[in-house]
Amino acid sequence: MSLLKEHDLGTPAKPGPATVSIEVDGMPVTVAEGTSVMRAAAESGVDIPKLCATDSLEAFGSCRLCLVEIDGRRGTPASCTTPVTPGMKVRTQTPKLEKLRQGVMELYISDHPLDCLTCSANGDCELQDMSGAVGLRQVRYGYEGANHLDAPKDTSNPYFDFESSKCIACSRCVRACGEIQGTFALTIEGRGFGSKVSAGAGELFMNSECVSCGACVQACPTATLQEKSVVQLGMPSRSVITTCAYCGVGCSFKAELRGDELVRMVPYKDGGANEGHSCVKGRFAFGYATHPDRQLSPMVRDSITDEWQKVDWDTAINYVATRMLDIQAKYGVGAIGGITSSRTTNEEVYVVQKMIRAAFGNNNVDTCARVCHSPTGYGLKQTFGTSAGTQDFRSVAQADVILVIGANPTDGHPVFASRMKRRLREGAKLVVIDPRRIDLVRSPHIEATHHLQLAPGTNVAVVNALAHVVLTEGLYDRAFVDERCEDFEGWAEFISRPENSPEAVEEITGVPAEELRAAARLYATGGNAAIYYGLGVTEHSQGSTMVMGMANLAMVTGNIGREGVGVNPLRGQNNVQGSCDMGSFPHELPGYRHVSDDAVRTVFENMWGRPLLSEPGLRIPNMFDAAVEGSFRAIFVQGEDIAQSDPNTKHVFAALGAMDLVVVQDLFLNETAKFAHVFLPGTSFLEKDGTFTNAERRINRVRPVMAPKTGKHEWEIVCEIAEAMGYPMSYSHPREIMDEIAALTPTFSGVSFEKLDKLGSVQWPCNDAAPEGTPTMHVDGFVRGKGRFVQTPFVPTRERSTRKYPLILTTGRILSQYNVGAQTRRTANVAWHQEDVLELHPHDAEVRGISDGDEVTLASRVGATSLRAVLSDRMPVGVVYTTFHHPVTGANVVTTENSDWATNCPEYKVTAVQVGLKHPRPAAEAVQDELLEPALAD
Ligand code: SF4
Ligand code: SF4
Ligand code: SF4
Ligand code: FES
Fold this sequence. Notes:
By secondary structure, the chain is α/β, with parallel strands linked by helices. It is 29% helix and 17% strand.
């Protein structure tokens, strides 16, 4: 439980150790140099009236309400824009100031609808508060003169209204959109009395550039920009601090409630990952938690062609346990297994992998990270010694050169993108390596210095060429390499071979050699250089190789071990880091320790009271293969829609269809549940109690906002299944699960719910050596001792474009939707994205007779689907792009079984395809016949 409103200090804190002492109303106060008089006063306990100032935005000085008197200075300066100077004596309350402030307020109020009692912001309106604060008792001006009371209302956004008659033109919204969000969708149009806020060129919010992050709504001091939920439900009266359940940024929120009803999510100022900002998903798209599609009762059926039967929890749990044991008795201990979810808490994941290892008695556990960041785990462990990003998000503020590789942060990791954009506006240089011209390449006040628009599947050739330039042009950090790294000489010989030069790879990658050389020089010599990457790096046949290639590049330039540098995966799902940390891979116990390590296994065996296998179990694709072949018969699927999210859908369907028992634990009857025999309803993040770990290794508390709607926490269900299978496993609270994790995992040994409640969050490693966590890794030495250079020869993918499949399909996500869309499709976010579309270059469209908006068939050698075409010159010729948020599109029907050589992570980013009109016009019929031939024959 927290305060509903945090104390607003008026202007942002200033960094730096130097301090200045002043007097405010006779009281001494010492503050950081550069602090405003307003903030200094607030820090000493004196709140100066204000309207246009707020501590999340730079001071603007427009409302003239915050006037003060300063000894020895003429006039009444605005305290928000006046910095402190040593010895300053400030008076904040004098008869003169009182009169001036009342005059200002009188003018505001005379042009404001006086409907306070029925206004949705009643009780949360700064205009109302300031009227009281300045002692306004009368308004001498009537409404007869010109006013804005009839100004129109814009209700086009599904989540907030813009009621411009209430606008006081303070510009906080405009500044929030620029400074915090970095979208610059709003302007103040006109001047003086005629000035008004405008989205774009006088458009409706929905038609403007607005991305619905809500920063303007949060910044608005009146009810002008207001959440629709507040208008409908009323002002919240209490709040609970918790963590967003969408992406790996892991934003902290205050869930604000009225009674038991969630009214709104407000980004938490003290949230380490987001510092008071959010995106449209976290702030607004929580309605899925109470969507009527949500299943709340356990259900069972003997055959997937039967109707579901609702049963009580005991029946469902005993059914699962009995069937699992029967299958093991008949087909062997290894015939069953499970998949953990990156959407659930660390504690929920931990108990599932423990159930599999200790109660099932095998290591057949894997996680959805298999299909996204498993190469990150492998690659960073090989080179640095630990499977995690090196920095905290704040670190980007110290970067001078930022490399974004195979990631689209403005859509995938929007709050981090806002931080990054702020740094870029301050002057940091940007290099984007991506086949698509993502928004970052050119957006308001930002332009990439280099966009290396490489051919899909050639990442490794590009990163090798970058390192080649660094080495052969003598731009590397010899001292860092000598002191901190090993295996350099062999790698240096490999990387300086002519075949790795930009000129040699130009034809393969499509990147002009000179551009590549310039990018390498910038990275090596431009100051602090940081790499941020996403699934465009990992979901390749050489995903792990590329991760190691980036690590090599960072090491050879000494860009590791301090703020502003590093190698940072932008993790997709909210708890993908955590699910990996918790021992979800078949070869690793919690804390990334190999199951074959006798000493480690003994520690777990002693704690868990069961012998553990020293052999790794099956990975997800091996489970599918074994199911089709008949030796793998039952699976427990925790919160992942494998039927939709895994590649080569036909094969996945065949595997699921072949199993005797499929148990799905989820919120909705998803695509996988079509193959399930038992459905165990799960809890939404609003009901969970535990922790999520974000992409910067930050462990955040997830606090329950409401009781589980299903009557049981997910961890309880798992424990009860284990118990019913004869393995005692019980906890009275998730806190005890975290205590067990801490006792077994050296990097977590200092973590506890108590510490998280005290500090807000911690970044692992958190132990005796770092009791408050570790924002930057590898500072004095690498986790593995010395950083290891690994040779990374480029091996082209087997997936090539051919005459029959001449285009390359690559996939990604968009801002408003999330993953397979199970949650976001059940919210008003569908207003932005009703369907998956196929983006293709106008040239590729033209030669196929395709126009914008046409329905097209997309076919690969494994399958075909259809979707609407959108022509876009963001795509290079020969490359097409789609998202995978809607099951009806079935984008994975066309993706192949190719995968990363080290981890089996699917090669989602490279599929050879053909595209043709679905309903061909006569001239295009020949192409269409050829297109459908393989799919029909298949
Ligand atoms: S919601 Fe966000 S993007 Fe839209 S206008 Fe407001 S601040 Fe800008
Ligand atoms: S909409 Fe709100 S924040 Fe924006 S100028 Fe008007 S009153 Fe200020
Ligand atoms: S950036 Fe990610 S974690 Fe933050 S609010 Fe958006 S979806 Fe949630
Ligand atoms: S708060 Fe200082 S001028 Fe508005």
